[in-house]
């Protein structure tokens, strides 16, 4: 069992065209409403082959298949403790849920699909007065490191990222704010979230096309933020867990509902969360590429915007145009590396890879 971020880039060896491959998925619609299982010792799986563990102050009713999942379908509800967290794992009053088999599925993935994404829906319910904390975490095979995950605080609706990392306080499990001032989700709202992890670099990102934040230029963009963890370089994903921690001085239990889990092996971060489909713009040319100082975009359309995104998912430059067929973007201030340029025009949007010398 177990238990227990953007500075670097999602550097990939190459942009491969391997098709994303589903390693695990569950929408709970074929499971019976009620207790997920009967064994909370982590030894015998319940419905959907999920294992559950409660070491103290809890039972199987804390893991429920419920009829109020996303869109009125079935979902998974996990309820934390109504008592305070203890000082050891045996007395921490936490609830753990996981499924076996991810390590083998990852090992058998299609060549080139060397990034893992774990996507799911979370219902942002808020419970006043609780100290419960719910975490969704991707582990390596020894459970020594959190490769990436989310932390949700039901008392406030705040969402953070989490990963094993070396920071100002040394090496350990760090949480990361996803927005200046903290990312507070709207109460009683469904959010589609994704954890993205690249073992080759230790890069982890947190993404959501339901959450709009501002980039460094003040533009509204969908959440895609993360860090590179030197602690996690080379560590392969082995298990995805949901954990409900009681919290210190807690007296109120909180329930959180999840739905539509999908764990995939993918080739590029662009495949996360069903990225909006690009269109093929006629006679599109992006040159010079590689570039030193400027990149020109020429196309049979009227260009209104060019956004350049690094492989960590951060928008590093946005240039607006007043409907031009040839747009020039100064890239002299960008660091050498690979970027994705998203070109928006009156005939649609497309994305092209560019290399800055």
From TrEMBL:
The keyword Signal applies. The keyword DNA-binding does not apply. Keywords: Signal. It comes from the Bacteria. Residues 286-355 form the Secretion system C-terminal sorting domain. It holds the Pfam family Por_Secre_tail. NCBIfam families: Por_Secre_tail (TIGR04183). InterPro entries: Secre_tail. Residues 1-20 form the signal peptide. This is T9SS type A sorting domain-containing protein.
């Amino acid at each position: 069992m177990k238990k227990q971020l953007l500075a670097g880039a999602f550097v990939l060896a190459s942009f491969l065209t391997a098709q994303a491959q589903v390693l695990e998925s569950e929408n709970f619609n074929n499971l019976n409403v009620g207790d997920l299982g009967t064994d909370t010792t982590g030894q015998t799986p319940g419905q959907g082959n999920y294992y559950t563990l409660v070491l103290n102050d809890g039972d199987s009713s804390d893991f429920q298949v419920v009829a109020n999942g996303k869109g009125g379908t079935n979902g998974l509800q996990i309820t934390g403790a109504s008592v305070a967290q203890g000082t050891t794992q045996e007395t921490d009053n936490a609830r753990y849920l996981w499924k076996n088999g991810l390590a083998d599925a990852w090992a058998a993935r299609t060549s080139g699909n060397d990034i893992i994404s774990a996507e799911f829906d979370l219902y942002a319910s808020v419970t006043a007065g609780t100290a419960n904390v719910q975490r969704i975490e991707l582990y390596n095979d020894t459970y020594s490191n959190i490769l990436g995950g989310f932390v949700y605080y039901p008392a406030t609706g705040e969402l953070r990222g989490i990963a094993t990392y070396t920071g100002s306080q040394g090496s350990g499990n760090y949480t990361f704010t996803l927005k200046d001032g903290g990312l507070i989700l709207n109460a009683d709202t469904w959010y589609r979230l994704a954890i993205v992890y690249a073992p080759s670099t230790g890069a982890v990102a947190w993404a959501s096309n339901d959450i709009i934040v501002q980039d460094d230029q003040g533009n509204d963009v969908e959440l895609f933020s993360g860090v590179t963890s030197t602690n996690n370089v080379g560590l392969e994903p082995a298990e995805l867990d949901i954990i409900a921690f009681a919290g210190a001085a807690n007296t109120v239990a909180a329930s959180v509902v999840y739905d539509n889990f999908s764990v995939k092996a993918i080739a590029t971060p662009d495949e996360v969360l069903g990225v909006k489909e690009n269109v093929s713009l006629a006679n599109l040319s992006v040159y010079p590429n590689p570039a030193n100082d400027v990149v020109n975009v020429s196309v049979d359309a009227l260009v209104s915007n060019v956004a350049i995104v690094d492989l960590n998912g951060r928008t590093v430059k946005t240039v607006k145009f007043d409907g031009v067929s040839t747009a020039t973007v100064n890239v002299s201030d960008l660091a050498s590396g690979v970027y994705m340029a998203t070109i928006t025009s009156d005939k649609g949007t497309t994305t092209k890879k560019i290399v800055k010398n």
